[in-house]
Fold each of these.
Amino acid sequence: MAILSARQKMGAAALVMGISVLLSRFMGLARDKVISWQFGAAGESDIYFAAFVVPDFINYLLAGGYMSITLIPLLNELFEEDEEEGWRFFGTVFTWATLAILTLAVLGWLAASPLARLVAPGFSPDQQIRLAHFLRIVLPAQIFFLPGACISALLYIRRQFVVPALMPLIYNGFILLGGIILPRVGLAQGMEGFCWGVLAGAFIGAFLLPLLAVREGGFTFRPGLRHPRLGRLGWLALPLIVGQSVVVLDEQFMRIFGSLAGEGAVSLLNYARRVMMVPVGVVAQAAGVASFPFLASLAAKKAWGEFDGALGTALRSSMIVVVPMTAWLLLVSPEVLGLIFEGGRFSPEQTNAAAPLLRIMLLSVPFWALQQVTGRAFYARQDTLTPAVVGTLATLAALPAYLWLLPRLGGQAALGVAGVAACSVALYAVALALVACRRWGFGAFEGVAASAVRSFILSLPALLLAWGAVFAVERAGGTLPLLARQFVLLAVSGFVFVLGWGLTARFFAPEYLHIVSAPLLRRLRKGGQRAGR
């Protein structure tokens, strides 16, 4: 019963994080809609997207995206042994994290001009000057991300998922506000307002909000520079610092190599990737983030049987959900891109150019789910070395593929960038899962591939119905405005697809339908009970 309860809580946590990521992705898409409307896929938007290469790399260099992952297991152990010692350790980590990110951000700010030339070799000199200006605005935002990640680790330990779920929403909201308001009041030009929004959103969403939340549950800050467990944290973080995984660098590769694929390629790749990351975030990342505290707790107890059970549940559930979602998106890729981005300076021709890029990237989504959950299983066992080594090898395999393929594709180089990115993620995910199977046995991974295949087969009738709905809407909605027709097409085809998949699953795989619907129904019941009180 305890295991069942833990799995139910893991499912509820995954639902909370999934809803958060879904809303965050939609806000991100709304932000990119404003960008595409105002700037299309051209020089200014290319510069803006390229401005994140250096800040993101600094974040990866300090394992900022993995701070919670490396910190949670150690804090869990110390708080169980001695709470006072846990707070001392947290204060020491926070101090070092702040000093390190502050130093690198200042150095990057001072070297913005040469860095701009390095990360965007295909840009003109004027574009590189503009890129350096953008860099000097967004780089200081990193100062708030890393300390904020340390604070968020405390919230995850307490199983407080709501505030971490709100953080990306606030961050994206400020970017959107900055991009819309600042140019209108004359405080920014072009896409500079979005850059200032990044800085404000990082401070308020990534740092201030979790700080206020963690203080409500009790917070003791003891800054320091020395602690016996600091070496252990460094040992866990070192592989993440030295090794650069393809799943965190693929976006940067798209920007760097996209700058060599002609004007607008960086923006088109970015717009396509934004849509692809919706199912990745809603299912894959949410499942990984939600399962990690539970996996870390089971690993700390050395309850390996329960660990394998929880890991297997997370993997199979992810595949059951992400495969049909990806299948539907493959069907309606042009309409999704058109609805979100088309209009203003984003033309139908640019929509048609981005659609094949999106379809190529979508093929990697199930592998993203496999990697996100499997990777956190390694981190829960305090093994950061293996994912870093496997991810670095996948990165090293991708680099010659980019360099060899792009010159041979000419005007289709953007397709090559998308293809190499998708293949490298798939390679990494499969290799990491094989390593896990060799070390831990096949127990947790038994049935994962079968779940993905079966979920796809169950999706085929729904896909056929959805294709019919698309055809019917296109025939009947010819007089509707383009935006309205795209909306109706997506709404009708999406409804028909969900209904078709649900009915098929109801008769041939009722357990799949239960996995998809149970967390949502539990949340609705709890909400109804609270409302009844």
Amino acid sequence: MKKYSKYIRPYLSAFILGPILMIVEVIGEVLMPKLMANIIDLGIVNEDYAYIWGHGILMVIVALLMMVGGVGGAYFAAKASVGFSSDMRRDIFGKVQKMSFANLDQFSTGSLVTRMTNDTTQVQNLLNMMLRMMLRAPGMLIGGIIMAIVLNPDLAKVLLVALPIIIIVVVLSIKFVFPKFKIMQDKLDKLNSNVQEIMISIRVIKSFVREDYENVRFEESNSNLKESTLKAMKFIILLMPTMSLIMNFTTLAVVWFGGKEILAGRMDVGNLTAFITYITQILGSLLMVSFMFLQSSRAFASLARIREVLDCKIDINDDNAAQKEKLVNSGSVEFKDVSFKYYKNNSEWVLDHISFKIESGKTLGIIGSTGSGKTTLVSMIPRLYDADEGTILVDGVDTREYSLHNLREGVGMVLQKNVLFSGSISENLRWGNEEATQEELEQASKDAEAYEFISNKPEKFESELGQGGVNVSGGQKQRLCIARALLKKPKILILDDSTSAVDTATEARIRECFYGTLKDTTKIIIAQRISSVKEADVIMVLDDGKIAGMGTHDELLKSCVPYGEIYYSQVDKNEEVAE
């Protein structure tokens, strides 16, 4: 419980008041049958109208107090449970924000969404039920048993048969249903991941006419969830009629034996009526407890999944950083014998003993085949991944010595997968600098060759972008992302194949800007086209996680076979002949 005390403390008064007010309702429910029995046995039988009126008014007062207790208890239970789950959801989201790329690789996006939404809702529902029932159900059970024994100890022995049967049924149901709820939540994960992937890729699906294929995939995920849900729910479905059957047989037994007690003159009609009500309350309270346990089975399965996120050890943090106040000033970058692999038990290195240095303001071009480790290498500069071996230096200081905030503030990245958010163009650009003026927005968009198409839009910089930038072309999306990074005014600018959708003439103008307005910024450009890195101060060729060559364009043509192969596979044959 210590793990969850911080979610309870802000709403402690609601956690206390909710159950207490429910006790008020319980006391009323225990008193009501006895008051009604007195009206029947003493008021009606004796035709004592004053007694009937007096007890009738008392019952109205008790009913009003029950209403206050019930409404108040429900309100505070809702307040406590909603607050608890809201704060837990906030912490899950905060934990995800702190995760490194390696941490995020442990969870699918759909799974994280499910844990933040459906799983926290299950915990919320359990808390709400517990706060309303944890004192109410036991209170009704104990109060009902006491009153039943007071009214007729012999008749109360019927409970000795009914209660053990009900307990056995509940225990068996919980035993079988708990693992099935865990499976059900995992199937929900897969369905959410499937739906998310389909929605993001809907344009690709339509362009390749693969709707039928995706329908089959969705139907498979949906059917798996349906089957796992039915397997979990069938125990709950069976529980209700089973409990009702036991309650009905118990009530019949009470009526049968109670009728004999009345005929023998050992019990009044009103007391039998009250006794039946108490038996119903006792069995009803047990039914509440059983549903609370079943709900807890699902909620605990969800809670275990939430704990997997909250307990996830963040492998990249700045807790031990020795120079947390230090800022990135010049932007020089050096790799010293750096090696890295995604899975620590894997024998193959993604990057294998990488060493190089790039001075401040210089441009490094990186080229290589798909899967050679280019993106991984640049992701290690802002510590999106950490090296398994070796050291990465920025301004001559180990990147682990910086605070993550200061290090990443000094690095601007345009990722291979360009991401824009729903909102206006200006809102998206201000991700780079939320304090940027309109003039700065315009200048950055000009430098990124984005100003022209923005100006042609009816609302210009206030034009709305769809989720992911679906209403702009691939090249426009890339240029907006470049402008966003330029607004950050970073000391190190990393472009990960970020002009692949831009024509060569536009790309040349963007590069010209880099060599002008960004002359003091260290630029690292990953590209597939030789033309994109040809003018770089130094070009690195990566091949299977190793440096295959490093130098200028002319030097690499003479000394690096992989670079020559890439170059001659791209160069125009006519130009080659002319030369």
